[in-house]
């Protein structure tokens, strides 16, 4: 797809400066953009690229003028660029259409209008799939799974029985929804399995990365509320509730029965303990271990997690710790010396 | 399914108090149970729900009496409830039966009685599958795989050639058994692959979570002994031995050639070094890094892991560390001051 | 397969000592080798097995003589043994041949000579697969994927549209190439998805473990350079570049837009921050968190990562920290006492 620069200016409602008939082949990063490509400058950090960029055109904030490169001025260059990115993104990334005769669909399943069900998909009994969903090859929906409208399930996603997925949900390759919770009752010398008869409910506009795992509840429901975004290899245990619009980065995990608040930001490789509550709007730094419940609006770091500023002070102190240990030994010696001196004086 | 309360009392061998003809639709958590649902009180922590619960019936320990809710008294309410949970769990969660003509089964494979092999399953040459196994869609057994009786392999589980799986083994979606060990010999400027010609043997009554990875041995066998339970996204490297009835929580990993003892409890996001031995009955706290071999019955925490009580004392000290650093500076100054004072006195 | 000891001596260009007609059934570890098996002694650590080993034959370095076991002397016993391992490794581990009629291949796809495409494989439109590739069951290539020659894609590997895979690449079960980068623009009370229109390029001789995830670039390319080896469950985020011959152990992750140098060694469960550069030849210890850019040849450990020797000194200090805290309290008291004493003297 190609648009002219003036078409793009119109699309993002911006002010065109320079030749509007330049043909734009696609968006690119400022340091990589070349012939026919459009980029953007939003952060001051990238301003120094203005002179050297080989981009055919730029989207910039309103403060920029006198640029030699043809450009479009908008209120927020970053948002403007997002719309361009969206315009140039392929509308669909699959070639299959309708319901492939090579998919296995149980007769009791219902599939909404305009779905694309690939070859090698399995849809179990009594599944209900909404409109305009795309199920890529290798997707497996066990029985009684409900999927809303406009969902994309990428290759090899599998959803266990009775789970419910909202509208406009995107699940990336290999992710697993509704596997059994990790529950075993110790009994003398072995464990007996606690049946996991609950399920998982995923809200609207959720996006799950690749190879994510979300366990079904022991009883009741593991809940991923609307707008949540989970990155690759994230683990959510049985009976958790992840609050609306919370974002969790790759390889983090939430242990069983924990409630994470809304609008929480969790960085990568974080662990959150079971049976606790994480407040709304928390920010949890990378590799932290949240061991106990938190209030709203906390910013935490470390294992165990403490307020981020405290952790950073601790880290600075830690760097000096080996030297400090020596210093303390010196102090001890000095005190002994002083004591001897005093006793000498005292004895006079 | 529905049972009356007196049927449940009989099932769990308990003492019925109240109307035995109440129809119970299923089990639920004490705080969520409502019309027609049964719950339980075992821990004192939940005792305060006794008055407010809307459960139709309760299972309680023998010490409880004078409850207004119909209830069953048993020696161990938790265990009693487990049996109810089991009774209400669906007997099977799949609709496919027998060997689907849409599965691909190599001619040399043998499949025991009463198995359910779903569409889109691949069973390679010379595989031997026991009785009453359930292979969900997307399961792939490469050649020469042996599976015991009564196993459940959930969707998209794959098992590489020559691996052996015991009886009553449950493997959740997307897990991988027998991928190559991570072995490369450095050679000048690159690595050459060390062929991984061993395999994996999984004992009876093992349960593996979703997206688990267990590598085959370089030579010989990676062993998961009987009764082991691994949570989602756990990694077991080549030539490891995981001892019987050991439990490992999500996102933990064991590096190559390590032997983990029996009845070990490993929390989430733990790393265990390669070529070491972890003693029996160890308990390893979350996010720990076990760097060297341990004795039996150790309780460890931290990276590097140290005895848990020691780690907790260190953590308390760490919180005060920045203040302590200031204190030490003060001490230094005080000593200088004292020395001056003494010298003044001394000089008199 | 079986070879005689003299055939093996010829294969590895070594000096035969003892009966050359011994039939060798396969290689084994020194402590496990038995009847008909060959092992090796390279490290001094294993020398004590020389007397007790039940191996039928040994490969040893040139310094060894007077062994009672038949043996082959070579310059480097370890390398010699690798060749034996290779000779005994099965040439292929799959029974399918050619293009299975049960695979789904889009008409516009091209597949090179001598490929083995299993049943239940999906190859999307305009894919180009080189010669002698093996695609195991459950492999899904979305549209416009390019795969070089001599690649092995194990069961349930999936590759999203437009990704490019080099020659002699091995990808283990369940790994995902080209899932969307984790990019969302905050907008008032929710996030909007940043389209991820880039792709992934994987160089020659790369090996990826099981359930690995590599995200496509937002724009441009996520690059895995030649010879890189990634272990199981490793995460590589959008727009990363992993330098040639870098090795990353299990469960480690690299955040977005980071450039990891060449010949870097990353241990398990490491996290590397986004938008930084890790120098060539770095060694990053297990569970470290690399928070900022590093120079070439650094050896780092800890979270935040610091030079490994510094971290080890800090760890030693930490062990003593609780005692040190007490010591400091004692020092404080001693100083108070000394001050009183001095004042008493001073007051005389």
From TrEMBL, chains A, B, C:
Q: What are the entry keywords? A: Acyltransferase, Coiled coil, Lipid A biosynthesis, Lipid biosynthesis, Lipid metabolism, Repeat, Transferase
Provenance organism: Caldithrix abyssi
The EC number(s) given in the record are: 2.3.1.191
Coiled-coil annotated residue ranges, if any: 321-348
Q: What protein is this chain from?
A: UDP-3-O-acylglucosamine N-acyltransferase
This protein's pathway reads: Bacterial outer membrane biogenesis; LPS lipid A biosynthesis
Catalytic machinery residues: 238
Q: What is the lineage of its organism?
A: Bacteria, Pseudomonadati, Calditrichota, Calditrichia, Calditrichales
Note the Pfam families from the entry: GMPPB_C, Hexapep, Hexapep_2, LpxD
Q: Which family does it belong to?
A: Belongs to the transferase hexapeptide repeat family. LpxD subfamily.
Tell me which Gene Ontology terms the entry assigns under biological process: lipid A biosynthetic process
């Amino acid at each position: 797809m190609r648009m002219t620069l003036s078409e793009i200016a119109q699309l993002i409602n911006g002010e065109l400066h320079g030749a509007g008939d330049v043909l734009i082949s696609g968006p690119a990063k400022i340091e990589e953009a070349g012939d026919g490509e459009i980029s953007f400058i939003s952060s001051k950090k990238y301003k120094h690229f203005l002179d050297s960029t080989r981009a055919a055109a730029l989207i910039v904030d309103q403060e920029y003028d006198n640029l030699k490169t043809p450009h479009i001025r908008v209120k927020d260059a970053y948002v403007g660029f997002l719309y361009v990115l969206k315009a140039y993104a392929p509308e669909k990334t699959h070639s299959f259409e309708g319901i492939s005769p090579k998919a296995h669909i149980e007769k009791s399943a219902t599939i909404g209008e305009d779905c694309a069900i690939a070859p090698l998909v399995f849809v179990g009994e009594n599944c209900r799939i909404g409109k305009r969903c795309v199920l890529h090859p290798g997707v497996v929906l066990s029985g009684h799974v409900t999927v809303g409208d406009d969902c994309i399930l990428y290759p090899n996603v599998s959803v266990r029985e009775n789970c419910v997925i909202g509208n406009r949900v995107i699940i990336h390759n290999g992710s697993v929804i509704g596997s059994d919770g990790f529950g075993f009752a110790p009994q003398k010398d072995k464990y007996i399995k606690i049946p996991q008869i609950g399920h998982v409910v995923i809200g609207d506009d959720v996006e799950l990365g690749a190879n994510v795992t979300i366990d079904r509840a022991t009883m009741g429901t593991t809940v991923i509320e609307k707008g949540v975004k989970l990155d690759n290899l994230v683990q959510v245990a049985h009976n958790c509730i992840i609050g609306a619009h919370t974002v969790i980065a790759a390889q983090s995990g939430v242990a069983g029965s924990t409630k994470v608040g809304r609008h929480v930001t969790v960085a990568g490789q974080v662990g959150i303990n079971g049976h606790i509550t994480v407040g709304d709007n928390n920010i949890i730094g990378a590799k932290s271990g949240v061991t106990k419940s938190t209030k709203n609006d906390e910013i935490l770091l470390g294992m165990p997690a403490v307020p981020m500023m405290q952790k950073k002070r601790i880290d600075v102190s830690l760097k000096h710790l080996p030297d400090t240990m020596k210093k303390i030994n010196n102090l001890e010696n000095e005190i002994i010396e002083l004591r001897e001196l005093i006793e000498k004086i005292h004895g006079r």
